[in-house]
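Q: Focus on the shape:
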Amino acid sequence: MPKDAHNMAAYQHERAAKSHRAAAAETNKGAHEACEQQAVAACQYSAKADELSKVAHEKSVQRSKSALVAK
């Protein structure tokens, strides 16, 4: 379902944002190794979010086309 796909993408975007905020906090503390770890995690979450966003979009388009055909 498109709803589930969008929710999964949103969850990964939220995880990426949380990791970006954690990386910023670690930078402010001067903890550069911890910052790098958080930044890597943020990139991984962002990549997954991007993949899931594309899937969600495709599902939404498919559903829209199905609805038009059904009319």
Notes: The chain has two helices and no strands. Residues 2-70 form one domain. The chain has a mean pLDDT of 93. The radius of gyration is 17 Å.
